[in-house]
Amino acid sequence: MSSSSRFIGAVEIGTSKVSVLIGEIIEGRRVNLIGYGECQSHGVVKGVVTDFKAASDATHSASLAAEQSAGVKIEEVFLAQTGKHLDGFYNQASVSVGAANNMVSQSDIDTVCRLAKAKALPDGRMVVHHIRRPFQLDGKLVGANPEHLNGERLEVGYWTVHGQEPMIANSIHVVRGFNVRVSDLILSSLASGTMLTTLQDRQNGALVIDIGAGTTDYVLYRDGAPYLTGAIPVGGSHLTNDLALGLRVTEGQAEKLKLRHGRGTVVAHDRNDKVWLNGDFAIGDRQFTRNAIETITSARVREVFEVVQKKLGTALNAENCAAGVVLTGGTSKLPGIADTAARVFGIPSHLGEMPPGVDEKLKEPSHATVLGLLHFGSQNRPQVAPRANRGRSILRKLFTVGA
Amino acid sequence: MNRIDPSTPTARSWRDIPQQIAPQAMSKVGRRRVTYRTVRNIAVVVGVLALAAGGFEIWRTLKNDPQRLVATTASEPLKEITVESNGVLGETWVSDQLALAENVGLMDLDLYSLRTRLTASGQVRAAVLTREFPDTLKVVLDERSPVVRVKARLSGPDVRDFLVARDGTVFSGSGFSTQTLSSLPWLGGIRLVRNRDGFLPLDDLNVVADLLLTARGHAPDLFATWRVISLERMDQDGEIVVQSSVVPKIIFGTREGFFSQIARLDLILAETRSHARAPLKSINLAVGASQVPVALMQPVPNAANSTTPTVRFPFN
User: Does ipTM exceed 0.85?
Assistant: First the structure.
C-alpha cells in the first residue's frame, strides 16, 4: 500500500440493488479494484430515494461489505445519478476571436465556454453535468483545444444535465450518512458508456443504453464526446410487472418467469410450447405458453427502445452511430434483446463487453456503472495536490470531524 | 477582446448542496464512524498537547534550573567493592588501582574512567563494572595469564622483571606466587619497544605459548629444566631456541607440531642419558622428523671425524 494511494468508492444506488466498488488509485492514475459490496436495495423507486432510512441502511450495508472485503476505509465517493428527474438541454455560444491576428487565445476559450454554460435553470433545478461538445472554428470541428488556431468565430455547445435539487440532495445525504464525502456525481449512462465503448467507438458514434431495474439510461456519443444523455423511468421491473398483470401471477413468480423464459424477441410460435411456473408440480403450479411470456417481455423491451428513439429524435441515425447500439444493465441479459434494439433503431446492436483486465466476477453488465464510476474517479482526480495546500490538507484530514 | 457580461446567468450546481449532515440522519454505521473519527481526533489533539506541554516543561527547566535535569537523586556512599576474577587479582589490588575517595557516592562513580584504570595495568584484559544498589560496586575481571618472564628497564636505571601473556602483552604482574613466577622460563632474543606507559605487545608469543603449554602438559619434568626461550631465530628461520639446564641449546621448528618434537626430544634425552659418552651440547629438532642433529660437548675418543652424530628415527 503506497503512501501516494487513495481509496475511492464508486456507489450506485439502484432500484434493485446497491453496488459499491472500492478502488485504490495509485499515483493519481492507476486503479486497483480491491473491494466490492452489494446489497438488495430498499427505499429506492425508479432510481430515486423515497425512503431515506431504508435507502441509507442498504447503501451503508453495501459500503461496509465493500470496506470489509477491501480492508480499507473509503475516503471519498463517486456517486451514480439516475432517475426521471434528470433532464438535459443543449446551449451553444459563439465569440469572435479577439486577437488581431485571429489566433484563438485561452481567454476566448474561457469566454465562449462560460457563455455556453450560462443559462439559468428553473427554481429547484441544479446542474449535474456540463458536457462539452467539440469546439467549432468558423463552422468546422476543431476538437478539444482550439488554442493558437486561426479563425474568426469560435463556437462551442454544452449538453447540460440538470436534476431536481431535493432528489440529488437525498442521494448525496444517503452517502454522507456513512460519513464519507461525495467527490463527484456522474450520470449512470456516462459511467457505463465510458466503460463499454472505446475512444474509436465514441469517435465513430455510439449509443449506450443501460437498462436497469427501474430506469433506462442512455448516452449518445458523437465526435468522441457525449452528445445527448437521458433517463426514462422504465426498466426491468416493468417487464416483471407486465408479466404479473398479463399472466395473473405474483411479482415474485413473474420475476422468476422473466429470468427463466423472458426474451427480447418472440421465437416461440408454437401455442403448445408451455413452461411450468414452478416446475415442482405442487398445488398452485401452473403452465404458461412460452409465446405469451416472450410476447409480453419483448413488447415492453420494444417499447423501451421506441421511447429512447423518440427521445433521441433526429440526433440518432445510422451515419453518425457507426459503432452501433451497446446494451448493458441487468435487463440486457434478456436473450434476443440486441435483435430488438437493432430492429427498432435500424442500426447494429450488441451487448456491451467489459475491457480486458476486469475481474471475471465484475464482467456482468450490471457492474458497468460502478466500474465506470471508478474509471471517472481515476481520470478526473488531480494527480498531485498543489504544494502550498499539501500541509493544510494533511491537517484538514487529521482534524476534520465528519468529513 | 471578449468580455463576459456580469449579468450572465449562472446555474446552481449540485456542488452547492451542503454535505453536512446531522448525526440523527446518519445510520448506526455512519454514527459509529463519526464517533471513531472524533475519538481519534481527540486522541491526536491530546497527544499533541501532551507533547507540547512536555516540551515546554523541559524548555522551562533548562532555562531556569538546568541542574534539575542532570542531577540525579543523592545516592548512597560506596561501601563495598566486590571482585570476581578468573585470575589472581583481588579486592585489595582493585581498591589500590581505583583509588576511590572515601564516601564517594555510588552514582558519582565514572565507570568508564575506572575501567580504564583497571585495564591500564596490562594484567587485566577486560573489566566490567556494575553499580549494585544501594552501595556496592561490582567488578568482574578477565585476567591475562603469564607465559614467560622478561627482564627490562622501564623507568629509572633498575632492571625489573615483567611478565608476558600469550597475546604478547608485557605487564608487571601482581598477585602471582613466587613459585608460579619461578616456574616461568625467561624470554630472550627480543626487542622491547616502549610506548607511553609500558611496552608494545610482542609478536609470535602465541607460538611460544603453544610450545610451553605442550611441554608443560606432556613433559612436565622436561619443562622444569627449561630456563630461557629465545626468539632470536624466529623471524629468520622460524625457530625457537630453548636453553635448558640439561641441554644448552634445543632448537624447535615452528613448521611442525610441537608435540612430536617434544616426543623426539624426550627420546633423545632418554637415549643419551643411558648411552652418552659426553654431555649434550645441542639438539636441533627443527630439521625434520626423520633425523635430528645432536651435538655433544667433547669429541668422543675413537670416533672418526664427526662431533655431531645424527640420530635416525626409523619409526615415525
Answer: no
